[in-house]
Design a protein that fits this description.
Elements: H1 13-32, H2 36-39, E1 46-53, E2 61-64, E3 67-73, H3 76-82, E4 90-98, E5 104-113, E6 116-124, E7 129-131, E8 145-150
Parallel strand pairs: 3-5
Antiparallel strand pairs: 1-2, 1-4, 2-3, 4-5, 5-6, 6-7, 6-8
C-alpha cells in the first residue's frame, strides 16, 4: 500500500498537485477563450450604440432610437475625442457607465461601419507617433490624422 505524506492543511501531496494542475488548467482556458475579447464589454461597462451628434454646446450627445443621451468622458482625452467634429453624425459604440447626473461616462469609443467595430486613434505621419486625442502633434505641431483601426479578437 502506498502512503502519502499529509500536508499541514490536511491534503496529501497527490491532492495538492491535482489542485494546482486544475487551477493552472482553468487559468489557461480563461486566458485563451475566443470571441469574448472582440465583442463583449467588460462586465462593469454598459454599451450604448447610436449616432454621435455635434452640438453647439460643449456637451457631446449620443442619439439612440430618437433619444438624446448627454455624454461625459472617463478621461479628458476621451472627452476631447467625443467632441471631435470629424466624428459628428457617425455611428458609434460607447462603453461606459451611467452617472447620477444623467450623463453616460464613456470609457471606450468605437466607430461602427457595416457592423464592424473600429478603434479611433490620432496619428502623425510626419513623426510616426500616435496621439491620445485630436489636435496637433506634440512633436512637430502639425494636425494629427483621425484613423480608424479595425478591431480584431485580440485588439480590444
Amino acid at each position: 500500500m502506498r502512503s502519502f505524506k499529509t500536508q499541514p492543511n490536511g491534503m496529501t501531496a497527490s491532492s495538492l498537485w491535482k489542485a494546482i494542475a486544475a487551477g493552472l488548467f482553468a487559468g489557461v482556458v480563461l486566458t485563451v477563450s475566443p470571441l469574448t475579447a472582440a465583442q463583449a464589454a467588460p462586465p462593469h461597462l454598459a454599451v450604448l450604440e447610436g449616432t454621435l451628434l455635434s452640438t453647439t454646446a460643449d456637451c457631446p450627445v449620443l442619439r439612440n432610437h430618437g433619444k438624446d443621451q448627454p455624454l461625459s468622458g472617463y478621461t479628458t482625452y476621451v472627452y476631447h475625442t467625443l467632441q471631435d467634429k470629424r466624428l459628428a453624425n457617425r455611428e458609434v459604440r460607447l462603453e461606459g457607465t451611467m452617472k447620477a447626473d444623467g450623463t453616460f461616462q464613456v470609457e471606450r469609443l468605437y466607430t461602427v461601419k457595416d457592423g464592424r467595430l473600429y478603434r479611433v486613434r490620432y496619428f502623425c505621419k510626419i513623426c510616426n507617433i500616435e496621439a491620445l486625442e485630436p489636435g496637433n502633434c506634440v512633436c512637430c505641431q502639425q494636425p494629427t490624422e483621425l484613423q480608424e483601426i479595425p478591431v480584431t479578437g485580440d485588439a480590444k
